[in-house]
């Protein structure tokens, strides 16, 4: 996983009413950036017949009126190739979330081990997460649940060899330069470094799944007792703040 | 408002409609009826302009009554049904009087039967759909004593009708088109997949079903693969090479490589395969797959053309003693596999 691995965009079938533009087979950082650029371009100028636009980790899925599939593909492949060739910077985010998080201790039981691997103090490791320019890369596995990245190269930590049987809802876990924010208690092979009071999925909330791929994310360190208090928010927003930037 | 009361529940009974499309980017799959064609056929029988919210009965039904005269359509997996002890024809509409007991037993073939009131259920909706989405805790299997709101039948005097239905309840061959990851499998593996007579495995629910065979189907280039966007119809090959076909409630992102995608019109055949049923797959090109991707309004028109007046013929009444309960339907989340685990 290097920044300059060559990208080879492919136009692929995804059911009779869909196409997928894939920048790489493996989770290359450059492919993740290219996905964000292509998805933003398509959202700004949607092709005829577009029903759904879904940014994935290394691919963009389009659901289309079945009659338009054949016509739309070649143009999008050309755009994907242009993006792959020029390696543009990430598009400027249009929204930014600031999410309070309690790092370490009972709220982040693996932070000490993560910091040791990085050769840093726990405080420095937490500060690096809070300083990182992070984006929601994709949402999946559970409604609203974000894959967030990318952390600096040193954070390319492997998954744990054994599953942790359960981390709580709101667990912030890390591996392979990414962060996942669990909406519900879950088993995981990633390392829990913090706990947040924000819940990415609340069916009874006005916006049940408020995060979108491409959103900028900042974590703000907060004491554990404050996170515990914020967890009482009936909306499940847990002190998260949304700024509209564009 | 009329009501439908559940006096006894024998299968996994949930409210389903055509689901909630449009939220893939937020990680929510469409969900809705496991056998969408069954709701289309019910709408055709009842003269409805669009599919109605209904009871989906996995494995078996229960005992039901209504508080106002109304027609109901019985579609999907054929189940032995009686009204106050009198056998009812499946794939037909029937008028139910208040106080009469509608009994729906186990599926004689297939998995998912549908009880569709002519006015449609009007249970609470979420994101524009009343469908239970069990995997994420939206709605829940119904239990005895439930009383559900129903829009009054707009035309309760309409004569009973029957629909001719192709048998999609005892397995068969499903068409498979290439998907984004078909190229990860070598030609021999893909040929072997289409030459294999699978049995629907023991594991299965609204998220997907296991395909059981001795052979394994492993992608040649699966190591380190990035998770990809997935959907109903996709055939995933899990870590040990056992394939699963994803259904309505599948996740939206998956880490396992996919052999291809079952075309939407053949998905009811997969969903309705009870454990042990033989399933085969045939690869088709994009053009054939596109032809098998017809709009629901087209399918509804076709279904309407298959409807006719119900002529009661004792020879067509199912033998009430021949049914058996269909096992292997679970409500669990045993298909969940998570890249973050």
Question: Can you describe what's shown?
Answer:
The complex is a heterodimer of chains A (246) and B (341). With 246 residues, chain A is α+β, with helices and mostly antiparallel strands. Chain A folds into two domains: 10-86, Gyrase A, domain 2 (2-Layer Sandwich); 95-244, Cyclophilin. Chain A is 24% helix and 29% strand. Chain A contains five helices and 14 strands. Chain A has a seven-stranded mixed beta barrel. A four-stranded antiparallel β-sheet of chain A has the order 1-2-4-3, covered by helices on one side. In chain A, helix 1 (29-44) crosses helix 2 (69-86) and helix 3 packs across helix 4. The radius of gyration of chain A is 19 Å and the shape is globular. Chain B is mainly beta and 341 residues long. Chain B folds into two domains: 2-165 and 306-316, no CATH class; 172-291, Cyclophilin (Beta Barrel). Helix content of chain B is 12%, strand content 32%. Chain B contains five helices and 22 strands. Chain B has helices at residues 36-46, 187-195, 267-271, 286-291, 296-305; strands spanning 2-9, 12-16, 54-58, 60-66, 70-76, 79-83, 86-88, 92-96, 102-107, 112-117, 147-150, 161-163, 172-177, 198-205, 208-212, 228-229, 234-237, 243-246, 253-254, 258-262, 278-284, 307-309. A seven-stranded mixed barrel of chain B has the order 13-20-17-18-15-14-21. Chain B has a six-stranded antiparallel β-sheet with strand order 7-6-9-4-1-11, with no helix packed on it. In chain B, strands 2-3-10-5-8 form a five-stranded antiparallel β-sheet, with helices on one face. In chain B, strand 6 (79-83) and strand 7 (86-88) form a beta hairpin. Chain B is elongated. The termini of chain B are far apart. Chains A and B meet through strand 2, strand 3, strand 4 and strand 11 of A and strand 16 and helix 4 of B.
Q: Outline of this structure?
A:
By secondary structure, chain A is of the alpha+beta class. Helix content of chain A is 24%, strand content 29%.
